[in-house]
Amino acid sequence: MQSYLVSDFLKSARLHGQFKQSIYNLSCQGNRLLSIFSRTDNRKPAMDISGMRHPYHDKNDFFLEDNIEVKEPLDLFNRWFQVVKSDTRTVEPNAMCLSTSTKDGYPTSRFVLLKGYSKDGFIFFTHYTSRKGQQLEENPKAALTFYWEHYSRSVRIEGDVEKLDIEDAEKYFKNRPYQSQIGALCSNQSFPVASRKDMEQIALRLKEKYKEGEVPRPPLWGGYIVKHHTIEFWQGQTDRIHDRIRFRRPKEDEPDGVLTHQGEDGWIYERLYP
Ligand SMILES: Cc1cc2nc3c(=O)[nH]c(=O)nc-3n(C[C@H](O)[C@H](O)[C@H](O)COP(=O)(O)O)c2cc1C
Fold first, then answer.
1. What is the pLDDT of residues 199-242, one digit of tens each?
2. Domain that holds residue 11
């Protein structure tokens, strides 16, 4: 492993002094790497994973403007999603990374499950009092990112966030499995808890109190909708000249027919450098 090779080299240089000159001659880049490796030497090995690389789509399979079947982002998202969803290799195609930020701009990310989508936006459910919930209260904007590795495809969504109606939360909560309902009810999401045992005991008490079909929705648990104003479709290419097509609403004088193009339903689209 690279890290061991470098640290062995350093050790032997220290012991025998014979490689000192060659260390001085290393390039700046090399010196920086060496100092990183030697710094971590007496703690745990630094992992050099710079060689990890996966082939994506080849040159016969570009994501070109001409083969975008539909130039409306929700419809295109739906087409990509249906393909992934019907492929059993992707266990949770609806898992998406949700990024929110504090009002002073500090970002945080976590995965949530997409539970519905339409031209109005993308829906997920959570605790309103959680960390993400608090951030959305302060700053109701979010980004969602999907990565479907078997297809070398990613979708990035940005938009303003609104709470769903209580009725939507009720309806979805009622349809959740019993265990998930208990899980939501016993969780003070994002707050510290002393032990797993504590949570299990709360869950046990709740199970004694509420039988299947009786679990009430936690009052501060519900849905959000991310009302998209930008959606980007990314397809990885093996030559690393990846395809990126972004849909957004037009500014003045757009589309110009060169960088920006007319899509459907008031959207425009543009290609981005990868
Ligand atoms: C694949 C996956 C799906 C998840 N789905 C949800 C979800 O739909 N809602 C939710 O509240 N947490 C979900 N979680 C847990 C969150 O990632 C996170 O731990 C939790 O919501 C607390 O986040 P916060 O402290 O930033 O608010 C999921 C985690 C994973 C890995």
1. 999 999 999 999 999 999 999 999 999 999 999 999 998 888 89
2. 2-40
State residue 177 phi and psi, 5-degree precision.
-60, 155
Q: Does 13 lie in the same domain as 148?
A: no
Annotated catalytic residue, options 240, 246, 248, 249: 240
Residue 187 has pLDDT above 80, yes or no: yes
Specify the CATH number for the domain of residue 81: 2.30.110.10
Of 101, 110, 180, 226, the one to substitute when testing ligand 1's pocket (max ligand atoms within 8 A of C-beta) is 110
- How many structural domains comprise the chain? 2
Which three-class secondary structure state does DSSP give residue 258?
coil
pLDDT of 9: 38
79 is catalytic: no
The verdict on 98 and 135 lying in the same domain is: yes
Domain match, 142 and 81 both: yes
> Does residue 125 sit in the same domain as residue 240?
yes
Backbone angles phi, psi at 74, to 5 degrees: -70, -40
Q: Which atom of ligand 1 is nearest the CA belonging to 113?
A: 8
Residues 20 and 106 in one domain: no
Atom of ligand 1 nearest to the CA of 135: 27
Q: Are strands 221-235 and 243-248 parallel, antiparallel or unpaired?
A: antiparallel
Neighbour tally for 181: CB within 10 Å = 23
Which residues have C-beta atoms less than 6 Å from ligand 1?
A: 92, 95, 108, 110-113, 124-126, 130-132, 189-190
State whether 76 and 12 are in the same domain.
Answer: no
